[in-house]
Specification:
Its EC number is 3.1.3.2. With 357 residues, the protein is an alpha/beta fold. 27% of the residues lie in helices and 20% in strands. It has a single domain, classed as Purple Acid Phosphatase, chain A, domain 2, CATH 3.60.21.10. It contains eleven helices and 14 strands. Helix 5 links the parallel strand 3 and strand 4.
Length: 357
Amino acid sequence: MASKNLQNIILLYKIILICGLCLVYSKTELPRFEHPIKPDGSLSILVVGDWGRRGAYNQTEVAAQSLPLVSKGFVAQVIRHPIASFPGGDKMAKIGGQMDPDFIISTGDNFYEDGLTGIEDPAFEESFSNIYLGPSLQKQWYSVLGNHDYRGDVLAQLDPILRQKDSKWLCLRSFILNTDVAEFFFIDTTPFVDKYFFRPEDDKYDWRGVLPREEYLSNQLKHLDTALKESSSNWKIVVGHHTLKSAGDHGITVELEERLLPVLQENNVDLYVNGHDHCLEHISSPDSPLQFLTSGGGSKAWRGNVRPWSPEELKLYYDGQGFMTMKLTKYDVYIQFYDIVGDILHQWSRSKGFYST
């Protein structure tokens, strides 16, 4: 009898444990990853987006920063917003070597024009593995999907087999990355945009895993809101492909402004980092500390059209190729934007006091 009672107690304990795990999972829902910081307590990150063109449109040059230095006059012409000029860096791989990035963020549109055809598509090697060859770029890449990625076999980019081909690749729809100095929330923005569903023109999108759409979007927003509220990190950074605020070709993504922006503002998010517009851009928020940072200059750029924007909010608009770097400690964040030859176009920093929450 005692033995049977013990078995029942063990069974009950297992049921409670399983239920507890289910409750924890249902609260967080989004997959979580951990990434260590440097021994000195800092974190360094490279951010690049809209790149996958088999090396064309200067993708290789952005990766290597190896083009000859162009004239300062030419650089000034492609900056559409007046900014301060800072001393140039030295040639994404060489600068990466100088800053020793802990990881790299890709803001989506990883493979043009129509994503991958499958896990054996040579575009994976031709646009990724064979391009980002510098030692400083052999770090973990954390990637989101862009609208062009949804035009192919969207599940291919999410397939663990690609990690067997190249261990630095990691792409999920939405996930959370924890570090000791900041927390990063990666979100899948493409399914928010109405025109991809109702006005796709000649483009075909792979919506496997997304339908029913409204349920998918509601769950994503709910889990993001929960995770942000549970976060105790001093820096909360959200990464998505589509623009929230932009003076570039795509401009404001209305669906994100209506549904995502209130979640970010309510939860005191510090930075929203995106691609989609093929430019480098920094817009400040007039009514909150939230900053909008676009790093979509990984290959094809030079769209040539800039929307009017308040100069008090538009800190940088560079209609060209390049990338962004982020350096964080528990109390400080430091942002720099680089052009294709490694010159610093713009830099911004913010500090939070020792007792900030």
